[in-house]
């Protein structure tokens, strides 16, 4: 087997969208299981009673996971030149290195190597351990649902940005009105407009913690209007995403197969 053939087989084995052999499925299941177990382990490590009793097992499992994920990461960089988008032996790998998938793979293993590479006891290095949760995002390669979500957000980004701008504008306007309505009655709660934004956000999201609330008649009247507007405003992105998901699912149902020559999807 030549090096190019070996690279092809490695790329197909690691890419869940290519290949349908027994080994392809076995590797996919193994990586998915390992990712899920890593997320569960990170959660359980926060329970002191469990961590104290099984801290050695957690350490061994973390080291084993890092070895597997590091090997997977290196093999992906080595074999990525099989893909036409990363064909160049140097610049292709550089392009792949800065891709989203490669970035997630890198920061998933980085927390393990940072303390080793550091010659000093940097306290902030411990913060990077939270990135171990990002190993869960590696599941994106193996779940077709993530591709649907990505396509929906990409196609509806303009509508979603508009909703975000409307929501932000409403928060600013509501905070300003409530500041002028409640400042004299509650100077400690509505001391300025930025402070009033806390009330505005909790009211518009219908959370309403109850730590800040209006006591004047005008403030209560404005709260009623703002609360109703908040329900409508936050329903907008829901409707946009729902229609986007519906259209994307219908599109996927219409796909018959892929052209073996050009790679484009053939629909009826």
Concise summary:
β1 and β2 (265-267) form a beta hairpin. The protein has helices at 3-14, 22-45, 48-79, 91-97, 100-117, 144-155, 157-182, 193-204, 217-254, and strands spanning 255-258, 265-267. It is mainly α and 268 residues long.
Structural account:
- This protein has 268 residues and is an all-alpha fold.
- The protein has two domains: 3-142, Voltage-gated potassium channels. Chain C (Four Helix Bundle (Hemerythrin (Met), subunit A), Up-down Bundle); 157-267, Orthogonal Bundle (Helix Hairpins), CATH 1.10.287.70.
- It is 68% helix and 3% strand.
- It has helices spanning 3-14, 22-45, 48-79, 91-97, 100-117, 144-155, 157-182, 193-204, 217-254; strands spanning 255-258, 265-267.
- The protein has a two-stranded antiparallel sheet with strand order 1-2.
- The radius of gyration is 26 Å and the shape is elongated.
- The two termini are 40 Å apart.
- The relative contact order is 0.07.
Features:
about 270 residues; mainly alpha; Four Helix Bundle (Hemerythrin (Met), subunit A); Helix Hairpins; single chain; 2 domains; two-stranded antiparallel ribbon
């Amino acid at each position: 087997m030549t090096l190019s053939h070996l690279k092809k087989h490695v790329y197909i084995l690691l890419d869940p969208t290519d290949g349908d052999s027994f080994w392809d499925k076995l590797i996919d299941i193994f990586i998915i299981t390992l990712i899920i177990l890593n997320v569960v382990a990170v959660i359980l490590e926060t329970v002191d009673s469990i961590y104290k009793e099984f801290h050695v097992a957690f350490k061994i499992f973390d080291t084993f996971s890092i070895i597997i994920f590091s090997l997977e990461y290196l093999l992906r960089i080595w074999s990525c030149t099989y893909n036409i988008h990363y064909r160049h032996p140097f610049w292709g790998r550089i392009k792949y290195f800065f891709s989203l998938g490669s970035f997630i793979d890198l920061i998933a293993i980085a927390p393990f190597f940072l303390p080793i590479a550091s010659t000093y006891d940097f306290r902030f290095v411990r913060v990077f351990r939270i990135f171990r949760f990002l190993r869960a995002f590696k599941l994106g390669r193996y779940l077709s649902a993530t591709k649907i979500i990505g396509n929906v957000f990409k196609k509806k980004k303009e509508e979603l940005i508009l909703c975000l701008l409307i929501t932000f504008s409403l928060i600013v306007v509501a905070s300003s009105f409530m500041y002028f309505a409640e400042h004299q009655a509650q100077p400690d709660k509505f001391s300025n407009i930025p402070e009033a934004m806390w009330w505005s956000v909790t009211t518009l999201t219908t959370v309403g913690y109850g730590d800040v609330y209006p006591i004047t008649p005008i403030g209560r009247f404005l709260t009623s209007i703002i609360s109703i507007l908040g329900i409508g405003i936050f329903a907008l992105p829901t409707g946009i995403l729902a229609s986007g998901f519906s259209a994307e699912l219908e599109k996927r149902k219409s796909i018959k197969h892929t052209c073996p020559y050009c790679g484009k999807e053939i629909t009826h």
